[in-house]
Design goal:
There is one protein chain. The chain is built from 9 helices and 11 strands. The strands form 2 sheets. A 9-stranded mixed sheet has the order 4-5-3-6-7-8-9-10-11, with helices on both faces. Helix 3 packs across helix 8. The longest helix has 15 residues.
Length: 260
C-alpha cells in the first residue's frame, strides 16, 4: 500500500525501523501521518516486550545500553550464560533482529543490546536486568540534546523489573544510580573502574572486586584488555549474577571469562 495516500485510521501501529528519525532532526513523514491519525509509533523491540508481558511475563531478559561497550558486554553476558548451560537468545542491536529470535520463555534468557533509537521506540521495555554502561555525547543529531539522549538511555534502567547495573564513572550514570537508589527500585548495582563501590563490582589492575573480595582475574584474557573492557566485564558479571540463582549457580565464572 502507498502510505502517502493510505487511510491511516485503519492502522493499529506504525512499526518504525530504528534508523528512521522519530523526533530529530525532524520526524519522518510517516511519523507525522501516524501521530495525526492517533496511530502509535513503536519498534520491533516493543513487540517482543508486549509478547513477553502477554504470554510469559516471568521470562528473563537482560537488556544492555550505553554509548560505548554495548556489543562487547552483550556478547560477554550471553557467553557466560551459555557457558553455564543456559538457553540464551542473543540479538537486538547485535547479531540477529529480535523478531527472529525464539520467543520468551521462563527457562530461556534473552540478552538484548539496545540502542537509544530502539529504546525510544519501546515504551514498555521492562527487562529483568538492565545495564547502562556509560553516557557520553553521541547521536545528538537524532536526539537534539545530550539531556534527551541521556533521558532515553535512562528509561531502560528505570523500568527494570529487578535490577539495574549502572556504570557510575561518568556524571550521568552516577546521577541516575543515585536517583534510583533514592526511589527504592529497581535494585541498583554500581560498576566502577575508578574506585570501590558498595553493592556492586569494581575493577582494578585487571581484577574484579566485590565488597573487597576478588571475584575474577582478567589478566591475560586478550579479548578483555584495558580499563574499558574491565568495565564491560564487571557489568557482565553483575548482570549475570542479578538473574535468578538457577541461571548462574555453580557456574565457573573464571573459566567462562577466559574462554570469551
Amino acid at each position: 500500500v502507498d502510505l502517502a495516500s493510505a487511510d491511516w485510521s485503519h492502522f493499529a501501529a506504525l512499526v518504525l525501523a530504528p534508523g528512521v528519525p522519530l523526533t530529530h532532526p525532524e520526524p519522518h513523514w510517516t511519523v507525522v501521518k501516524a501521530k495525526a491519525a492517533g496511530v502509535e509509533v513503536i519498534g520491533d523491540v516493543e513487540l517482543v516486550f508486549r509478547e513477553r508481558a502477554s504470554a510469559c511475563p516471568d521470562a528473563p531478559v537482560v537488556a544492555i545500553t550505553g554509548t560505548n561497550g554495548k556489543s562487547t558486554t552483550t556478547a560477554l553476558i550471553a557467553h557466560i550464560l551459555r557457558a553455564f548451560g543456559n538457553d540464551v537468545q542473543l540479538g537486538g542491536n547485535i547479531g540477529r533482529a529480535v523478531l527472529t529470535l525464539e520467543p520468551p520463555a521462563e527457562d530461556r534468557i534473552h540478552v538484548l543490546e539496545l540502542s537509544s533509537f530502539q529504546i525510544d521506540l519501546a515504551p514498555s521495555a521492562a527487562p529483568t536486568v538492565a545495564v547502562l554502561l556509560n553516557i557520553t555525547p553521541d547521536h545528538i543529531d537524532r536526539h537534539g540534546t545530550i539531556e534527551h539522549y541521556a533521558e532515553v538511555k535512562s528509561r531502560l534502567i528505570a523500568e527494570a523489573k529487578d535490577t539495574s547495573v549502572i556504570g557510575v564513572d561518568d556524571e550521568w550514570g552516577a546521577r541516575f544510580a543515585t536517583a534510583l537508589e533514592a526511589r527504592g527500585y529497581p535494585k541498583v548495582r554500581r560498576i566502577s573502574v575508578r574506585a570501590p563501590v558498595a553493592d556492586g563490582i569494581s575493577a582494578r589492575d585487571a581484577k574484579l572486586f566485590e565488597n573487597g573480595t576478588q571475584r575474577a582475574d582478567l589478566d591475560g584474557i586478550a579479548t578483555l584488555r584495558g580499563e574499558h573492557n574491565w568495565q564491560n566485564a564487571a557489568a557482565a558479571v553483575a548482570a549475570v549474577e542479578s538473574l535468578p540463582e538457577k541461571f548462574h549457580a555453580g557456574g565457573d565464572l573464571q573459566a567462562a571469562l577466559r574462554s570469551f
